Amino acid sequence: MDTKIIRVRHTISVAVLLTAAYLFMLTMLPGSTCIAQAVDEKSIECHKEIAKTIVHGTALGLGEILKDVKEEKKRIALIRQFISPIRFYADNTGYFYVYKFNCENIAHATQKDLQGNNLYNHKDAKGKYVIRELSDAAKAGGGFVDFHWLKPGAKGEQKKLGYVEPIPGTDYFIGTGVYLP
């Protein structure tokens, strides 16, 4: 196997382990401000901070890993491999998604059927062009967007607050979100 590929896979493995450890510390350890709180404004703010922090760190890490990978198919495969197993928040409803700025889905941790599809014209249950707004927020350097989306294990779309940022050195953005009451 090519030495560069081995090095990239090793880097991804280490990054996944570090991310998992960080997420565990944020969401599972006793004393975490997000655990055992009622779903209220304080807990939502806590989840927003987790989303922003984890997206930012992951975007920077992926940007660094991808700078040495020039072939598009290999970049996409690495992104999918990286985000697929990651779950966070105490109820495991936290996951990542990655899109191109043109709204083409590159990777989705829970809805693999979206991968490769352009969702430019996708509207949520309330008529919002979700991916367009997420792309605009990412192009502006990052931000929050409220929308409705399928929640793992639930029926129908649920209210969600997403956070996105661009992945440095690419035409991709990464995001996550928190499902709201």
What does this structure look like?
Helices cover 40% and strands 19% of the residues. It starts with a helix and ends with a strand. The protein has a five-stranded antiparallel sheet, sandwiched between helices. With 181 residues, the protein is an alpha+beta fold. The protein contains four helices and five strands, in the order αααββαβββ. The chain has a single domain, classed as Beta-Lactamase (2-Layer Sandwich), CATH 3.30.450.20. A hairpin with a 4-residue loop joins strand 1 (97-100) and strand 2 (105-108). The protein is globular and about 50 Å long.
The total tally of domains equals 1
Shape type? globular
Element string (H = helix, E = strand) = HHHEEHEEE
The CATH class name reads: Alpha Beta
- Structural class, by secondary structure, is alpha+beta
Separation of the first and last Cα atoms: 48 Å
Strand order of the largest sheet: 2-1-5-4-3
Estimated helix fraction? 40-55%
Could you name the CATH homologous superfamily?
Answer: PAS domain
Q: Which terms summarize this structure?
A:
Beta-Lactamase, globular, alpha+beta, 181 residues, five-stranded antiparallel β-sheet
Topology:
Layout: H1 3-27, H2 41-66, H3 72-83, E1 97-100, E2 105-108, H4 130-139, E3 143-150, E4 157-166, E5 172-179
Antiparallel strand pairs: 1-2, 1-5, 3-4, 4-5
How would you summarize what this structure contains?
The protein is α+β, with helices and mostly antiparallel strands and 181 residues long. It has four helices and five strands, in the order αααββαβββ. It has one domain: Beta-Lactamase (2-Layer Sandwich), CATH 3.30.450.20.
